[in-house]
């Protein structure tokens, strides 16, 4: 159809749409279709107007159009877009249309519904439309379309007027890029089909015939593997290759490694086969490279490679697994002891003293080292347990007691330092807040409501600073929020006068509180050990110091995190505000684009675990 | 001085105060004092006007007044109140006075400063004023005052005009209640002083003489103890009693128990004395009654009562201590094994499976039970370790593998239930919020800005509901915040239509997220164990289910806890608001008294520990 002159298309669109809606509501699809084609109205509307009704009347639609071309036109114009939301909004009075089917895509729904109806009515007659419905799906079903063409060729339809294989293929080539079609025909592993497509295409037979002949000469599974690989369908390639005989296993391994199809490969072999073992080994090697040594160890262990499993487990301090594998091998006692010492050393470096002690005690049979590890780790009760198990009360005097006294001192010193930093930050925060509030009110007051600079002083200001986060008080930092915090820290600086100094201070205060609060269990067990050895005086002092620290911090929370802090952008009202400042801040708030701030969030008040009882009654 | 007629006191107060301030600034204390006395102006102003200047010029003040009576008048009128803040505010123009000394109380500061000056100038002459300065202190120093009277009697002053002991005592009795003075005289343990006071009082000698004679007959420490006890000064009583000889130790114990002075008593005896042991025993008994059995055990252990210590430790599952004491006793092996089993059973009840297993393995020598405890507790790696230590691979087949498969099923089921509840609450929350918002806007719109009912629909509404909190999703509940939450729950009901339903839903959603998030470690170790035994399919399903659950919850957070939720009382603006509704909500906000809501706080978004890696690469 040629484009028409402009004049001819001048219609009042609202009137036209109203008429179309009436036709569609009355199932007069033909009238609607003709009109839309003439006035170039998007054909999607036929479906979008009322999906449910359309799907229930697909046959009527086909019967009324009664034209393969028209049906194809409708199919090819299908788009995911809902035209009643975009081009042709519904009149406000009409009730909202409920979507017929959810989850599936619209184009797929319509293609499938039409094809089902077409096949039921006359598969031969509507052959080309059926092909179109395959090709137009979100993920085009080219193989199925090709298969149908192939069937036409095998069994030419007897009905007069039905499309021949020739015509159908031509039509497909009109719809789809020829190379795509060729590749997909290869993907059916049907050489007749491939040849048929190749012949219709403008491809050079000298190019494709040798390739096809080579393929034909191969063992069927290996042939399919070769095709899959050519089409970059590596998963399928792996499946076919694995079926093509043991002599190709080296290729399997190569493919698996190249394409990292380890998990898929494992599923293709039984756990007791040599192939399974080889794939597992390769996978393990890959995992070790990915810092996943523990999982590598599990694979190696279960496929019967204990020595390599031991290596993997040892490398990542997965000590329980390492020791089990070692006993399975079995390692001779002296080597097991060496292994235990080796693992214990690594664990000690990671401050996992209890586990190190277990290894030293039970596998290296060195109770003295074990007890010392526990003392170093401040695991007092367990240290005492081992002392009694091995009847080594001498260590109590030589090591345990001195370590207890040292621990009191270091904990007391640590608490003092934390409290001092805390108080310094807290005072500074009060100063910074006062300055900010004053600056903001001044600005609002002097320059009136439209002053854009006032924003700079609001809590939500997004001024960046490049200076480094200069302070870290957390001895124990939880890994989980580490990365997020790291990113935020870059914006927060405790340097006096930095734009986000208040938040940096809140952040630092929050960290101190969390750190000190986390000490409850540690202090509790230290106090008990001190009491047991009659160090009541030292214990009493520590208890007092810790209690005061906790009280200081708990008492500061309402000041550092006042109620309503998060809504600090609410209009400024108060004794120091003026009519101007209130209106200005109110307007600012509305002008501010929502969710435009990539700022570090305002740190929330840390929760103190007051439920964790740590105090000793006997030290009051 | 008689009160004067009204007419005479009519002065313009501002003028008078201005004059007084000028006098005080000019150190004209006499003029100021006279004027204030005449016009009944509170004498505290003399100090309050400028504390620093007053303290620097105490001698001048005394010299100018030059009257014991006047000084006494000033002292007796002293109050903690700062009159420049209350009765006589400073004129606005004057600079704020910096407080001279902080920490100490004003009355004490003035009394001490005056006394120091008086004693330096003429202790005899100002005797009565000095006594007043002792008596007027926040905690009256009656003993010191009495002591001074006593000194006067011993060494009568030779200066003419100086007060005699007689006069001084009379004056004291005028200032202080006679019974108080008598009791305090007893407290000096000085019978001369007691008699002196008793004679001056109207007490009946038949009443006090026998008591005093009885006291005199006692051993000095026991005498003091009797007096202390009479005066209810139990700590002092304990100290004196402990010094009064071993024959009174039964009384010591009685006093300690009655007055719960255990810690104090322990400090009075050396750790190796029999008294120390007896006090410790008594203390331990008391502590057990206070649910502090572990601390009781520590006291008993260190004072050499291991059998009773063992009992205390066992009763509170303090198993490491119990086992140590048992080995110290030493318990014969079969009894130690029984003890270990007993403790293990208690620990199992508390879901402390690893510890139970250690006891069963190392002390009860029952590796099978130990391994089963670990399997029950889903401590897979440790179970496997013991299996290898004791070469009991048979248990892997009979118990470990079936338990793993059961664990997958129960975890999958649990996750499904959590996700279902989560989605139900989430949908319901959306409905409730929409209803609330609609109701609020309707109300604001219809009834205009002054409608008080609109408040009911705001987030901060404080309507209470008596219905029970009907749902608990937390398998694992942290003790720390338990009590606080319990109180809040009473206000929160998930029942449809309850006034706080939205918060109850947020609370429930938050708990589900926390519960599911806490499963990371558990799921990780289960997945590893499953992989080791080739249960890849089951592990894969569980990994997928858990990942979907986490994604569902993480995805819901921005919807359930939208940004700016806490400031939901900010003026309502948006497509559905009208000028009326905006102004109404804005006004409401200002009318609302700050911090008047004892409401449960809006639950904050739980933090998900995305840093805890739980997924296995090999299961993707």
Characterization of this structure:
- Chain A has helices at 13-25, 29-38, 44-48, 51-56, 58-65, 68-77, 106-122, 127-135, 142-154, 165-175, 178-187, 191-200, 205-216, 220-230, 234-243, 249-259, 262-268, 274-289, 293-302, 306-315, 319-328, 333-349, 353-363, 367-376, 380-389, 394-447, 482-489, 501-517, 520-532, 536-560, 579-591.
- By secondary structure, chain A is mostly helical.
- Chain A has three domains: 7-242; 250-397; 435-593 and 600-619, no CATH class.
- In chain A, α8 (127-135) packs parallel to α10 (165-175) and α28 packs antiparallel against α30.
- The longest helix of chain A has 54 residues, at 394-447.
- Chain A is flat.
- At the A-B interface, α17, α19, α21, α25 and α29 of A face α17, α19, α21, α25 and α29 of B.
């Amino acid at each position: 159809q040629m484009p028409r002159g402009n004049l001819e298309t001048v219609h009042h669109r609202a009137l036209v749409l109203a008429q179309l809606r009436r036709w569609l509501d009355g199932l007069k699809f033909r009238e609607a279709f003709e009109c839309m084609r003439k006035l170039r109205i998007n054909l999607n509307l036929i479906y979008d107007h009322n999906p449910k009704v359309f799907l229930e009347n697909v046959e009527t639609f086909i019967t009324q159009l009664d034209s393969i071309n028209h049906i194809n036109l409708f199919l090819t114009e299908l788009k995911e877009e809902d035209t009643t939301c975009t081009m042709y909004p519904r009149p406000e009075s009409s009730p909202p249309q409920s979507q017929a089917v959810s989850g599936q895509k619209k184009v797929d729904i319509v293609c499938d519904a039409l094809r089902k109806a077409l096949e039921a009515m006359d598969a031969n007659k509507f052959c080309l439309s059926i092909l179109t419905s395959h090709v137009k799906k979100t993920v085009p079903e080219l193989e199925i379309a090709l298969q149908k063409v192939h069937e036409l060729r095998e069994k030419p339809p007897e009905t007069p007027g039905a499309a021949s294989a020739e015509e159908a293929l031509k039509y497909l080539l009109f719809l789809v890029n020829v190379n795509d079609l060729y590749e997909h025909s290869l993907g059916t592993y049907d050489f007749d089909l491939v040849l048929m497509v190749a012949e219709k295409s403008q491809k050079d037979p000298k190019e494709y015939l040798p390739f096809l002949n080579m393929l034909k000469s191969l063992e069927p599974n290996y042939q399919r593997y070769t095709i899959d690989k050519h089409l970059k369908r590596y998963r399928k390639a792996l499946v076919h290759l694995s079926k093509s005989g043991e002599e190709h296993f080296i290729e399997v391994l190569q493919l698996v490694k190249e394409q990292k199809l380890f998990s898929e490969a494992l599923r293709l072999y039984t756990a007791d086969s040599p192939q399974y073992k080889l794939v597992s080994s390769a996978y393990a090697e890959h995992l070790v490279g990915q810092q996943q040594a523990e999982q590598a160890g599990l694979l190696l262990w279960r496929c019967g490679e204990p020595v390599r499993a031991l290596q993997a487990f040892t490398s990542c301090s997965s000590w329980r697994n390492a020791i089990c594998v070692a006993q399975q091998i079995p390692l001779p006692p002296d080597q097991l002891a060496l292994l235990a010492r080796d693992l214990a050393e690594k664990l000690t470096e990671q401050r996992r003293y209890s586990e190190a002690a277990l290894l030293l005690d039970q596998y290296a049979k060195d109770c003295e080292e074990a007890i010392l590890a526990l003392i170093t780790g401040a695991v007092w009760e367990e240290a005492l347990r081992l002392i009694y198990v091995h009847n080594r009360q001498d260590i109590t005097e030589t090591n345990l007691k001195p370590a207890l006294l040292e621990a009191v001192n270091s904990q007391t010193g640590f608490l003092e330092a934390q409290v001092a930093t805390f108080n310094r930050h807290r005072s500074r925060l009060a100063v910074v807040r006062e300055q900010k509030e004053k600056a903001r009110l001044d600005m609002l007051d002097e320059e009136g409501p439209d002053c854009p600079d006032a924003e700079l002083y609001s809590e939500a200001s997004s001024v960046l600073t490049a200076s480094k986060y200069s302070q870290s008080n957390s001895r124990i930092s939880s890994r989980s929020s580490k990365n997020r915090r790291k990113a935020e820290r870059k914006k927060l600086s405790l340097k006096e006068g930095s734009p986000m100094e208040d938040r940096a201070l809140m952040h630092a205060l929050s960290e101190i509180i969390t750190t000190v609060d986390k000490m409850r269990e540690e202090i509790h067990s230290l106090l008990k050990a001190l009491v047991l050895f009659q160090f009541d005086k030292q214990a009493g002092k520590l208890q007092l110091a810790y209690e005061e620290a906790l009280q200081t911090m708990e008492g500061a929370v309402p000041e550092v995190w006042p109620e309503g802090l998060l809504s600090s952008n609410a209009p400024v009202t108060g004794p120091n505000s003026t009519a101007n400042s209130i209106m200005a801040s109110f307007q600012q708030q509305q002008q501010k684009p929502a969710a435009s701030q990539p700022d570090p969030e305002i740190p929330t008040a840390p929760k103190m675990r007051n439920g964790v009882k740590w105090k000793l009654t006997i030290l009051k």
